[in-house]
Fold:
Amino acid sequence: MLELLFLLAAGFFGGMINSIAGGGSFITFPALLFVGIPPISANATNTFAACSGYMSGTWAFRKDLREVKDQLPKFILISLIGGIAGAWLLLQTPETAFRVAIPWLLLFATVLFIFGGQLNSLLKTLSTRHRHASSMGALLLTLLLLGVCLYGGFFNAGLGIITLSYLALAGYTNINTMNGLKLLISSFVSLIAIALFIYDGAIAWYEGTIVLTGTLAGGYFAAHLSRKLPQQWVRNFVIVASTGITIYFFYDVYFLSNNTL
Structure:
């Protein structure tokens, strides 16, 4: 019962944070690890739990996506290819190796979360100066998007931030369109990854469903709260929480594990 309430609360707060500021995986992924789910299964389960939020968000931005509807097939195809490649790579990774990689992946996602705004501003400036990209530039942007989607299939945390940075570099400026594309890409990356995770039996369904339920409730609650609660407050909380969680996993992997050998 205690585990159920813990996962439900983690999903609820993760869903709230995703709706207001992003970064809910910093809560839900560690929560799945803390209840004893193996790292790779916890990552797969977290992807499953987060996907419904991506899809509902995509639907909410459907009008904004109509403005770039001719580009959607490209985004969907690359998302599917990158997502399944990243998920396959995750499932081929030994559990011990992935466990060692967790603090580094969390550190990468945390740094992106903290400096994502500055990075997006810089990339928007660069994209404005080089608006007429060469065919080689278009190819590099396609490969970069593939890399973003591969990362998302491998490790879900931080995917939205990386995707927004890519879209800024690609020259997009309308924030609503960018958010719609971010959620569309995240949806298809997650859906194809989940299909592979289901085939491999990597998802912890009981725990994942509890987190998913909490996420949906938190997202719904946040829709009413977001107008009253300053986003910067939530963002600061995510920064503190993600930094603390990252430090904990470095301590756990590189200090506690060495002392138990």
Notes: Residues 150 and 182 are 14 Å apart (CA to CA). The radius of gyration is 18 Å. The chain has eleven helices and no strands. Residues 2-260 form one domain.
